[in-house]
Amino acid sequence: MHLTHLECTACGLHHEARRLLNLCLRCGKPLFAKYDLARAAQTMTPEALRTRRADMWRYREVLPVERDENIVSLGEGWTPLVHARRLGAKLGMGELYIKDESLNPTQSFKARGMSTAVSMAMELGAQRLAVPSAGNAAGALAAYAARAGFEAFIFMPQDTPRANVIECVEMGARVTLVEGLITDCAAEIARRKEQEGWFEVSTLKEPYRVEGKKTMGYELAEQFDWQLPDAIIYPTGGGTGLIGMWKAFDEMEAMGLIDGKRPRMIVVQAAGCAPIVRAFEQGEDHAAEFPNAATIASGLRVPRAIGDFLILSAVRSSGGTAIAVTDEEMTDAVREIGATEGIFAAPEGAACLPALRKLLDRGVISKDERVVIFNTGAGVKYLECFAR
Amino acid sequence: MHLTHLECTACGLHHEARRLLNLCLRCGKPLFAKYDLARAAQTMTPEALRTRRADMWRYREVLPVERDENIVSLGEGWTPLVHARRLGAKLGMGELYIKDESLNPTQSFKARGMSTAVSMAMELGAQRLAVPSAGNAAGALAAYAARAGFEAFIFMPQDTPRANVIECVEMGARVTLVEGLITDCAAEIARRKEQEGWFEVSTLKEPYRVEGKKTMGYELAEQFDWQLPDAIIYPTGGGTGLIGMWKAFDEMEAMGLIDGKRPRMIVVQAAGCAPIVRAFEQGEDHAAEFPNAATIASGLRVPRAIGDFLILSAVRSSGGTAIAVTDEEMTDAVREIGATEGIFAAPEGAACLPALRKLLDRGVISKDERVVIFNTGAGVKYLECFAR
Fold first, then answer.
1. Which residues, 6 or more positions from A105, have their beta carbon under 8 angstroms from its beta carbon?
2. Contact criterion met (CB below 8 Å) for A72 and A148
3. Best residue of B79, B127, B170, B383 to probe chain A, by most A CBs closer than 10 Å
4. Closest CA to B167 of A159, A342, A44, A293
5. With contact defined as beta carbons under 8 Å apart, do A289 and A303 qualify?
6. Which residue in A79, A170, A378 is closest to B379 by CB distance?
7. Out of B145, B171, B344, whose CB is closest to A167?
8. What are phi and psi of A223, to 5 degrees?
């Protein structure tokens, strides 16, 4: 449609769009898809959107696939933005919302990114896809690869929640459990991918998963009638969701859909794996690998993220912050969110609640602000965390 | 809105709508909500629906809640109707669809019914809700009760999948595990409910869960541009989903949204618990209790259903049939659907596939027909079934 080229997020080098690429060919950093936004804006108007399909492909003009028949979809996106009145009341807030990503295919926000990545693999001719995953990305790739008729090669840490392993197997993926962390899984793929003929769809190591995830930003804007909230609290492992939303905001402003006002972007990480929090506090532009990463929130067990500089830049530009919470705070929050709002959140999503409480206490967020917390996935996939 | 009264499905006795009721006060059979459909049709037009919210409350005129502020919602309904091209091709079919109910809150179609039941409890003043459940209804009640600020008292068989038990606990419900089947759970509630002050929201034992579930019928019609499919294959435990869709079809015809053509309604049950199949084959109007009910598809382990006569009547009027499949066929089908379409189905939903194969073989369904199979829930909640 309106995709024009790929641009390196670090050195700015342009790359041809209609080619299977991973990282910048010059500097090895992530590539962003760029669009002719003026043309996209002609048809993707608030009025036109009102009658469109209830999934993320409603934003067709700013998604990278050229031909409709290459879209690999299971109904991802356009998830509920739940007004959390009872939980808000406990905190003295009238405008607290939960974006509930557990209503995606495979029960997590990872579906969005894999829908675009696998669609682009379809369009550009890759059929053997490999991914390292802390859990939910694995299930999502397994699903979209199966839907496309492709092969999925999935590498997860040995102690990934059982639900993630089983869903991959039941959807026909080839699963390898690796002793170590997601970074070790990535190393294993790097070692073998050339020989095996795999195309790697590791997040931000190919340009299109972030395009799917950015639709969370479009949806927030549209669901709030094109007024972004005051703050977004986002559980951050690889950080592609946050990076994607930040990209979406720029695109929407260029298209005239929103003004220049931005939410404060607030990163939540686990105390046992908080590389971004540490880098933010130390004023670094990049985040060093976090040693001995450990947390029950498997999606936050990402000791090193290739998009670290993009996360830190968005957080700082927005006037946001980064904060860590403990595993115990997360499991307590799962129950609190569950019992007040009826959403059985993933521990990653639940992490937003103790973070919010701390930021209210510190005056970083005020009670009359409009705040969105992201429940990135379904708690039911993390039975191991709730065996008490 | 347009709710006029409740009517007994067996003896036809009218009951006042604005009153907390369970079964017919004369004959003890299920009650149906009745509407002023002529008035509803004035505003609920295909044109008007195009810009409505992407959940089941888009059908506001034919849902029972009077005041909007009583609606207890988590974004249920308006689930994807997935064109199963690859699975269809394996069967020689061009028009096979999967209605994927796993994209509901709490990952199953049970969310629909509990959303209306809890909304009506809110409107009519019940705050302590009890339910017997084979699994997914429990999680759904826990969620909607929490969202409403009500107490949920849940009775499940001891060997219900762990995911169902944990989700209820994490959402603050009071869970009792009962040695026996769902019928034993119901008996326990019947024994205690008066003393405890519980309102029972057992399916079809209160009039409103079926109202939520009927929206599956409205959605099918709207998603197919107001042309119903040739056949619907539906995994049937209590049968409220099928009964609800059948009710929806009548309402839609009365409103002029569809013509008189109906899909053949096809019941699928487990070989280890097939009371409806047995009654259908024996030409009975009611289904006797199925002895020693046993199946891994916990939602199909319903040895006796209060709506049996309604299920059998819909199946027969539609020219449909009833068929049983084995547990092994179900688990094989989970993997086949997963690997071809990327949907990790519940065993209940997967049961539709072997049923479809048999009906194609027997010529009951022909390959050029448009057929919808219902995936009623997410496979990820049934980890016990996939431990191989």
1. A74, A75, A76, A111, A140, A143, B80, B100, B102, B103, B342, B343
2. yes
3. B170
4. A342
5. yes
6. A170
7. B344
8. -65, -25
Burial of B326 (0-12, 13-18, 19+ CB in 10 A): middle
A166 min Cα distance to partner chain B (Å): 7
Shortest Cα distance from B366 to chain A (angstroms)? 24
Residue pair A346/A374 in contact (Cβ under 8 Å)? The answer is no
B55:A386 CB<8 A: no
Chain B hits for A383, CB-CB cut-off 8 Å, are: 162-163, 166, 383
For residue B378, how many other CB atoms are within 10 A of its CB? 30
pLDDT given for residue B61 in this prediction:
98
Residue B46 CB: number of other CB atoms within 10 A?
11
DSSP-assigned letters across all residues of B355-379 = HHHHHHHTTSS-TTS-EEEEE-BBG
As a whole number of angstroms, the distance between CA A371 and CA A97 comes to: 6
Using an 8 Å Cβ cutoff, are A163 and A383 in contact? yes
Give chain B positions within 8 Å (CB) of A379.
167, 170
Sorted by sequence, the CB contacts under 8 Å of residue B78 that are 6+ apart come out as A54, B53, B54, B55, B56, B58, B219
Interface touch A142/B342, C-beta < 8 Å: yes
User: What is the helix (H) or strand (E) element at residue A39, kind and residue range?
Assistant: helix A37-43
**Mean of per-residue pLDDT scores for chain B:** 97
In chain A, beta strands by DSSP E: 3-8, 14-15, 31-35, 81-83, 96-100, 128-132, 151-157, 174-178, 199-200, 231-235, 264-270, 321-325, 371-375
* Low-confidence residues in chain A, pLDDT < 50: none
Q: A343–B105: do the CB atoms touch at under 8 Å? A: yes
B381, B135 contact by CB (below 8 A): yes
pLDDT at B247: 98
Is B339 close to A55, i.e. CB distance below 8 A?
Answer: no
Going from the N-terminus, what domains does chain B have, and what CATH number goes with each? 81-108+209-386 (3.40.50.1100)
Tell me whether residues A339 and B172 touch, CB distance under 8 A: yes
- B216-231 tens-digit pLDDT: 999 999 999 999 999 9
The identity of residue A46, as a single letter, is P
Segment B15-36, tens digit of pLDDT: 999 899 999 999 999 999 999 9
Contacts of B82 in chain A (CB under 8 A): 74-75
Q: SS3 of A171, please?
A: coil
Tell if the CB–CB gap between A162 and B383 is shorter than 8 Å. Answer: yes
Both tokens of residue B117? 């039941």
What is the least distance, in Å, from the CA of A93 to any CA of chain B? 16
Distance from CA of B380 to the nearest CA of A (A): 6
CA separation for the pair B25, A370 (Å, rounded): 48
Q: What are phi and psi of B197, to 5 degrees?
A: 70, 35
**Positions in chain B whose pLDDT score sits under 70:** 388
Instruction: Report the pLDDT value the prediction gives residue A388, as an integer from 0 to 100.
Output: 56
pLDDT digits over A145-165, tens only? 999 999 999 999 999 999 999
Nearest chain B CA: its distance from A378 CA (Å): 8
* Residue-wise pLDDT tens digits, B31-89: 999 999 999 999 999 999 999 999 999 999 999 999 999 999 999 999 999 999 999 99
CA separation for the pair B129, A77 (Å, rounded): 32
Report the SS3 class of residue A81.
strand
Q: Own/partner pairs for B89-94, CB < 8 Å, 24+ apart?
A: B90/B340, B91/B356, B91/B357, B91/B360, B91/B367, B92/B360, B92/B367, B93/B360, B93/B367, B93/B368, B93/B369, B93/B371, B94/B367, B94/B368
Contacts of B309 (CB under 8 A, 6+ apart): B10, B285, B286
In chain A, count H helices and then E strands.
Answer: 15, 13
